[in-house]
Amino acid sequence: MSQQGLDLIFEQILSGGLVFRDRNLLRHDYMPATLPHREEQIRRLGSVLAPALSRERVSNLFAYGKTGTGKTIVTRFVLDRLQRKAKDHGRAVDTSYVNCRLAGTNYRVIADLCRALGEDVPFTGLAVGELFDRLRNALQSRESAFLVVLDEIDALVKRSDDDSLLYELTRINERLDGGWIGVIGISNDLHFKDFLDPRVLSSLGEEELVFKPYSSEELYDILKDRAEQAFQEGVLDDGALRLCSALAAGEHGDARRALDLLRVAGEIGERAKEERILESHVRMAQQKVEHDRVTEVLSSLPLHSRILLISVLHLESARKESSVTGDVYEVYRGLCSAAAVEPLTQRRISGLLNELDIMGIINARVVSFGRYGRTKKIRLGVEPQAVKSAFGNDELVRGLLEYAPRGLPGHQGR
Predict the structure, then answer these.
(1) Which domains does the chain have, with CATH numbers?
(2) Could you tell me which residue, 203 or 333, shows the higher pLDDT?
């Protein structure tokens, strides 16, 4: 392409483009002025947090629901308006938002909370106990209400099998007579509470807020509200809008997916210099969004996660049903032997399964056997063909896709 042709593309975007006015309005981290169909959750959360304005301690709250049901945006929406009200009336209210999956460790979570209170802490090097002491001292000296949002809180507990951070945070107020902390935990996993110590659960779950999936009509209202500002007038066909809503509702009422579909459909039409965004563009966007997400995730997996996923694939192909953790581990060990790779311990594999579950690559459901303990039922969360395609070019694991491990129905191994 000539420089002149490239300049035309850039100038078209700078001038607003034929399709979009502002595509950023279709990103799920954009904060709109209103949140349709979440009025009840906003009211409930606002009622729980309102006492902070008069320096009264608030109840800890646990919000849960599937991805894209509005948990994070509702929480940030309420906290944003609470802070504005506190500022208007000269009240001391501090807030902090931490994504536990991105933070990754207890240390980083506590360090982020300290920094939100103006406490300068290093990225590494301190004992966790020292960090907690600094957090307490900062709360005591500021004498403020400190509202903490721990998003994807399940990722932190599942990864380390350790809920000590939550225990300390929910008990920290017992040793404070100045400021105080209120914890809002957010999880996509409806079974997350099964991982918690009863003492943590009783403190964290003082209040619960459930976010049900959006219906197709609710998603349509959300998209329409955003699209009127995001697209040029007359560009978006109503059928395309309804198809985005229906496709996202057909999965599990995911507003993030609906917004992604609509934005990518617009980008596909824009690149093709189309004057209208139609249902056909949404169909193309559906293929692209799903393919890009799965391919990106699978291609970035480390070696043992790949072997583990192939183990789940083999078990599901042979049994046509969910497998328990122990069976997955046995097949994994057999595949490691075939590939001349030293296997990881079962405890470490349990952690990798948690990570794959968090990413949506597998679906792991905790099953309790009473006094005999509990295990997980595991199934693939992506299409088997996607796994085979993603690993087909990896020489080390490609052969494992065709390998027949011992212990599977109808397979004798090699």
Answers:
(1) 3-20+215-298 (1.10.8.60), 39-210 (3.40.50.300), 301-401 (1.10.10.10)
(2) 333
